[in-house]
Recover the amino acids of this structure.
């Protein structure tokens, strides 16, 4: 057991460190167990055997060692899993939780899992599920972590000691993960998703968005003509996030901010939205998971269908998805509205973009 | 008088902004009814030597009398906030289709501590302008000016109210009337002892 650290606040580096340490710990404990089990069964080269088997099946296999927890989760959730009958626990919801945890770890390694207490609680819960009944130390850690994060979120946790409750010191989170996360966090801070809190300085250019005339003014003169063909789309976006209109401040790159109930919020772009036509997935992945089935997006947890749970028509979005993906495909979405199919190899690609009007009510910012 | 779409009136300048556009909202007369109407908006800017910068609109509603409405106070002193909050002019339509402009004035009300719309005499309005309001309006094209009884034959409790009649959409006359009875009244602290 290398660490038993619990968070005391929302420190991003601590959260990243704990997620990383949990992955290491779970990987080591499962790997040791599997190694003993396979060796006892006369197959000490089990990891190499699995690698060859997956390659022979033309399946991607990039795991470099048997203690990579993503490898264990991936292999353990396959229909033809080599771990069948060997795993230390065999609870009914193992596969479901393991698949969800595998997705979270992929998001984590792509700097797309928002490093906050809410996600740490979700991850802790999934670790508790997949390690339940194993007798591993990581189970106790996951359970303690789940209780602590819940207490922090409920506001009932009061820090009494800044020292971590640890058996030994927490492993350093790899510099690369921290740097990539810092980059991702900075990108969000600079230009947050529409509807999110504006973190920067108030821009100098002041415009006025008028609800009655559905037009945009600078010093009383309409400036919406400057937008050319983009005028209709830009104004629709601004009114979506800033429905009552009012004063709007615009940065030189076009990022626009308005005050909603006293909070500065990103409401749109004066001009083209950067990376509108790119396939890069921006931002952090929402915790909700979705399936694309029968031409519909379905919220896995609630079972709700997209087409009957939005404030604006979704026909175009569903049509776009139908040409981009197959039936029965799992989907994720980020806080920027970038929709993608989760992948186990490489970085995911954006297949569509949704705004809050054409996504499940209340799930996207704004 | 209008040169480059600008008229000077005492301490104020009126700049007429080009174009008409749709305007969605509730007319004064229907403000308690549900739903909105979409009228047609023309705007002008009122600026003054004491930093006032106010956009005012003439809105022609499909199912209500036209109105002059302060739209956007872009700059000014604290007291100019009075112009952003009140001072709308709801016009009447005369039997022959012209527009009747009630000439009440924003005047400081000491008991309420703010400017409110009050009746004013022709002399008081002349004083605000600095010369004859009647002559100016007739020169600009107003059809008649005087009591509502005299110019429109009204016999109700508003019969003695000072008003004028202009041709429909005569935005120059309307803007000048707005400036004298609203902007200049506040700028010159009308009613403040």
């Amino acid at each position: 057991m290398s660490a038993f650290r619990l968070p005391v606040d929302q420190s991003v580096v601590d959260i990243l460190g704990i997620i990383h340490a949990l992955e290491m710990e779970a990987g080591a404990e499962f790997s040791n167990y599997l190694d003993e089990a396979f060796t006892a069964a006369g197959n000490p080269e089990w990891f190499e055997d699995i690698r060859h088997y997956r390659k022979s099946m033309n399946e991607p296999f990039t795991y470099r060692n048997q203690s990579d927890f993503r490898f264990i989760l991936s292999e353990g959730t396959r229909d033809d899993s080599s771990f069948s009958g060997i795993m230390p626990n065999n609870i009914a919801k193992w596969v479901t939780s393991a698949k969800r945890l595998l997705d979270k770890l992929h998001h984590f390694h792509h700097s797309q899992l928002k490093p906050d207490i809410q996600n740490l609680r979700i991850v802790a819960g999934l670790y508790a599920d997949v390690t339940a009944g194993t007798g591993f130390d990581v189970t106790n850690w996951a359970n303690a972590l789940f209780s602590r994060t819940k207490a922090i979120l409920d506001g009932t946790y009061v820090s009494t000691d800044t020292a971590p409750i640890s058996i030994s010191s927490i492993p350093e989170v790899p510099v690369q993960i921290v740097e990539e996360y810092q980059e991702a966090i900075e990108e969000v801070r600079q230009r947050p998703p529409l509807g999110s809190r504006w973190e920067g300085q108030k821009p100098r250019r002041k415009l006025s968005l008028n609800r009655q005339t559905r037009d945009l003014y600078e010093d009383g003169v309409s400036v919406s003509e400057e937008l050319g063909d983009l005028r209709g789309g830009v104004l629709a976006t601004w009114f979506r996030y800033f429905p009552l209109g009012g004063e709007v401040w615009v940065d030189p790159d076009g990022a626009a901010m308005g005050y909603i109930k006293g909070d500065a919020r990103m409401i749109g772009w004066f001009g083209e939205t950067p990376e509108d036509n790119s396939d890069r997935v921006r931002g952090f992945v929402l915790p909700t998971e979705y399936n694309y089935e029968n031409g519909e997006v379905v919220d896995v947890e609630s079972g709700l269908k997209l087409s009957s749970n939005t404030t604006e028509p979704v026909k175009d979005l569903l049509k776009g998805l139908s040409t981009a993906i197959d039936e029965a495909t799992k989907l994720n979405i980020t806080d920027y509205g970038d929709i993608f199919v989760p992948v186990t190899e490489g970085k995911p690609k954006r297949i569509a973009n949704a705004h809050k009007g054409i996504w499940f009510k209340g799930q996207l910012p704004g | 008088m209008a040169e480059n779409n600008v008229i000077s009136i005492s301490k104020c300048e009126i700049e007429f902004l080009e174009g008409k556009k749709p305007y969605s909202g509730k007319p004064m007369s229907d403000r308690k009814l549900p739903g909105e109407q979409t009228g047609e908006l023309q705007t002008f800017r009122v600026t003054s030597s004491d930093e006032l910068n106010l956009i005012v609109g003439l809105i022609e509603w499909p199912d209500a009398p036209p109105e002059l409405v302060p739209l956007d106070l872009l700059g000014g002193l604290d007291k100019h906030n009075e112009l952003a909050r009140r001072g709308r002019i709801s016009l009447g339509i005369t039997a022959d289709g012209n527009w009747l402009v009630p000439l009440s004035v924003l005047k400081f009300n000491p008991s309420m501590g703010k400017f409110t719309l009050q009746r004013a005499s022709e002399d008081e309005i002349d004083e605000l302008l600095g010369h004859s309001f009647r002559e100016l309006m007739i020169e600009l094209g107003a059809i008649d000016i005087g009591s509502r009884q005299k110019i429109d034959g009204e016999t109700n409790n508003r019969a003695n109210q000072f008003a004028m009649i202009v041709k429909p959409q005569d935005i120059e006359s309307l803007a000048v009337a707005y400036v004298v009875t609203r902007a200049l009244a506040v700028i010159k602290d009308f009613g403040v002892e």
Chain A has nine helices and eleven strands. Residues 12-40 of chain A form the longest helix (29 residues). Residues 164-170 of chain A have pLDDT under 50 and may be disordered. Residues 174 and 193 of chain A are 27 Å apart (CA to CA).
